[in-house]
């Protein structure tokens, strides 16, 4: 019982510390970024991040909920295929969202006028959202497997790399909002590659055939 409590406390501490560290770093960097970025730059960045947040929820379509609900219910021999189907579905929805974004911009850039972002930024927002959705799937698996060390490493390394690239692009290269978005996009793609490698090492690959069979599970009653 004491060992269980100690393990639970350790995992809780690591998860909480990782979240707090991300918030602390962002807070400490605020004075630095305000020196180099204009209010217009912040407006573009915040709009971009808001669109990314909304799209991430759409692209995930309850993927992490499916994993939490069924990860230990599905037979172990079928778990890899099941997880691969969810990962594949996320990537398919991401691709569909890219196409939808392009079609939405076709009649005179209508979508860009609504979101106040140009076509390239909308495309990058979809890419980042797709990468974030796959990354969230991996983080959920690490939590289910009670692996807080890899969880913390993945979360904190993302923050560190993103901030380093952003600061380099903004301060050294002299970019404004472009530098911040470059940091966000580059880090998301890098973490996507790392996540796919981690899934592959678990014998999990995004599965295309039959991927839509996992959709009804999210709507089924417990």
Q: Helix share of residues?
A: over 70%
Report the structural category: mainly alpha
| Number of H- or I-type helical stretches | 9
Low-confidence stretches: 214-222
> In percent terms, what proportion of residues is strand?
under 5%
Number of DSSP strands? 0
How many discrete domains? Answer: 1
Mean pLDDT: 80
Shape: globular
Separation of termini?
30 Å
Give Rg in angstroms: 19 Å
Summary, kept brief:
The protein has 9 helices and no strands. The protein is mostly helical and 222 residues long.
Give structural notes.
This protein has 222 residues and is mostly helical. It has helices spanning 2-36, 39-60, 63-70, 76-105, 110-115, 119-144, 148-172, 177-201, 215-219. The chain has one domain. Helix 1 packs parallel to helix 7 (148-172). The longest helix is centred in the N-terminal third of the chain and has 35 residues, at 2-36.
